[in-house]
Specification:
Low-confidence stretches: 1-10
Helix content: 25-40%
Number of domains: 3
Structural class: alpha/beta
CATH topology of the largest domain: Rossmann fold
Number of strands: 25
Radius of gyration: 31 Å
Strand order of the largest sheet: 10-23-24-25-21-22-11
CATH class of the largest domain: Alpha Beta
Shape: elongated
CATH superfamily of the largest domain: HUPs
Largest sheet: 7 strands, mixed
Mean pLDDT: 95
Bound molecules: adenosine-5'-triphosphate, magnesium ion
Length: 563
């Protein structure tokens, strides 16, 4: 379904460390040459660009090595999870171009098996019910250099543990009053091995299992076991889970009945400058109204990026370019912007739009005449063909393209100067008019018939080429220009401040622009390059008589120039 880009890129770079591990496993004939991965989102928020990094790896590895990738919802915490999130997660993964086929799983599907496994651990003397509060348990945990203390409930009999665990699940005890812990080693140098909690009591109904369960497995107790139940071979996750790996292995070890075991490998998570990628913070932005919703084009969510005009290919190419390592890194958000520019440069037709209009009158052009000027849709791709745009006596150009007293290096319009109007004529500026405040409001020019695009003098040398729209043919459009949502490169990197303190008050600017009439036929989310201005797409807020555009990115990296 999406092999094209893989063939493009895999040739160019060497294997990342995970691909190297997989290839070595295949060489050794591990797991009968099977490669099986999974992407395990918790349905407690929308996916963001960081999740895309994990998705591209999980599905990408499966695809490259003729394996399979499961979609598994890690739905072990009913208090935060919702079907709204399940649906959006599926939509976003499909949009990125990946397919889990019929393998859509839920950790909650395994609640029965997991409960049985917990009972089995109790019977083998490897788990016990602890009646202490979480504070008491924390106070016994010790430190990495100091062993913890045994819980007074650690030596409970198997019968009592079984009885209590069943009654915990029958709803006999209040939330927080008891937990089930694995009995491992309170002196382990790894804190996660110090009798971790594996089950807790929750009375909140679950979005799939309703009120069938009163006890819920902790993430660590569900994850590796779910991998095991599904036959996952390579369980890829982010670096913060490295310290959980001994527990993952210990639990799988207790569960194993043959030689098969899933193995966890950790890679560096994505951090992006000027961006926050914590679901909690993204939720706060939405709930407090700092943005208009999960799909606000300023959000780093996949639904926000899609609305902003990012393509699936640009996101995959970005992930490919930053790669997968064991080293924590902060990636520059401009790399992501570069990736979408690269992709849209090939795909987006060039059109004319003027964002900050200045009226220009061609005084020697007949008043009632209109010419259809032919222009090609994309010089990068001839197969995209051409179209015509209407030209007439009065046009709009960009205010910034005219100066009363231009310096030498200004290659645009000024009194006495000549420029080319893209796909039309060469014009010369004779005069201009100002309002009482001294603002230039009209520019007067003359055109030379022989310089018509394709005509005998079309190639005459002039210093600049301007974009334009015919005033009487242009359509008014609402244009949304975005700046970064945060004004600090590391909004989440300040000890005593919240990222909210660094919100950029100017992250959204709404203006009225004028676009060529062909854009009346554009469909929602269609993408264009407005000549010289950037890449834009049609926002879903568009109605039959109100066009709305989002600027995905400016043509060049303006931010780099600013700093
Ligand atoms: P939470 O804090 O709610 O657990 P999460 O971002 O870890 O948030 P999950 O739904 O658990 O959300 O993530 C699903 C998968 O995506 C996990 O395997 C996780 O490692 C991976 N992932 C999450 N954030 C990033 C990131 N910034 N870069 C790479 N992978 C990520
Ligand atoms: Mg997580």
């Amino acid at each position: 379904m999406m092999t094209d880009h893989k063939e493009d890129t895999s040739e160019k770079r060497s294997l990342n460390f995970i691909e190297a591990i997989v290839e070595e496993d295949l060489r050794q004939g591990r797991d009968d040459g099977k490669v099986h991965t999974r992407f395990p989102p918790e349905p407690n928020g929308y996916l963001h660009i960081g999740h895309a990094k994990a998705i591209c790896l999980d599905f990408g590895i499966a695809e490259n090595y003729k394996g399979k990738c499961n979609l598994r919802f890690d739905d072990t915490n009913p208090t935060k999870e919702d079907v709204e999130y399940v649906d959006s997660i599926k939509e976003d993964i499909k949009w990125l171009g990946f397919d889990w086929e019929e393998r859509e799983y839920y950790a909650s599907d395994y609640f029965g098996q997991l409960f049985d496994f917990a009972v089995d651990l109790i019977k083998r003397g490897l788990a016990y019910v602890d009646d202490q509060s979480s504070e008491e348990m924390a106070s016994q945990k010790g430190t990495p250099t100091e062993p913890g203390k045994h819980s007074p409930f650690r030596e409970r009999s198997v019968e009592e543990n079984l009885n209590l665990f069943q009654r915990m699940n029958a709803g006999e005890f209040p939330e927080g009053s008891r937990v089930l812990r694995a009995k491992i080693d309170m002196a382990s140098p790894n804190m996660h091995m110090r009798d971790p909690v594996i089950y807790r009591i929750l009375f909140h109904p679950h979005h799939r299992t309703g009120d069938a369960w009163k006890v819920y497995p902790m993430y660590d107790f569900a994850h590796g076991q779910s991998d095991y139940f599904e036959g996952v071979t390579h369980s890829l996750c982010t670096l913060e889970f490295e310290v959980h790996r001994p527990l993952y292995d210990w639990l799988v070890e207790q569960l194993m009945t043959d030689n098969y075991r899933p193995r966890q490998t950790e890679f560096n998570r994505l951090n992006l400058s000027y961006t926050v990628l914590s679901k909690r913070l993204l939720l706060e932005l939405v709930e407090k109204g700092h943005v208009k919703g999960w799909d606000d084009p300023r959000m780093p969510t996949l639904t926000g990026l899609r609305r902003r005009g990012y393509t699936p290919e640009s996101i995959r190419n970005f992930n490919d370019s930053i790669g997968y390592t064991k080293v924590m890194a902060n990636n520059d958000v401009s790399l992501l912007e570069y990736a979408v520019r690269e992709d849209l440069n090939k795909k987006a037709p060039r059109v004319m739009g003027v964002l900050n209009p200045l009226k220009l009158i061609i005084t020697n052009y007949p008043e009632d005449k209109t010419e259809e000027m032919e222009t090609i849709n994309n010089p990068e791709d001839e197969s995209m063909g051409s179209r015509t745009i209407p030209f007439s006596r009065e046009i709009y150009i960009e205010k910034e393209d005219f100066m009363e007293e231009p310096p030498k290096k200004f290659f645009r319009l000024g009194p006495g100067r000549e420029v080319r109007l893209k796909s039309a004529y060469i014009i010369k500026c004779d005069d201009y008019r100002k309002d009482e405040d001294g603002n230039v409001v009209e520019v007067y020019c003359t055109y030379d018939e022989a310089t018509r695009s394709g005509g005998p003098e079309a190639n005459r040398k002039v210093k600049g080429t301007l974009h334009w729209v015919s005033a009487k043919h242009a359509i008014e459009a609402e244009v949304r220009l975005f700046d970064r949502l945060f004004s600090d490169p590391e909004p989440a990197g300040h000890k005593d401040k919240s990222p909210i303190d660094f919100l950029n008050p100017d992250s959204l600017k709404v203006i009225t622009g004028y676009v060529e009439p062909s854009l009346n036929n554009a469909s929602l989310l269609d993408q264009f390059q407005f000549q010289r201005l950037g890449y834009f797409n049609v926002d879903p807020d568009t109605t039959p008589d109100h066009l709305v555009f989002n600027r995905t990115v400016p043509l060049r990296d303006n931010w780099a120039k600013k700093s």
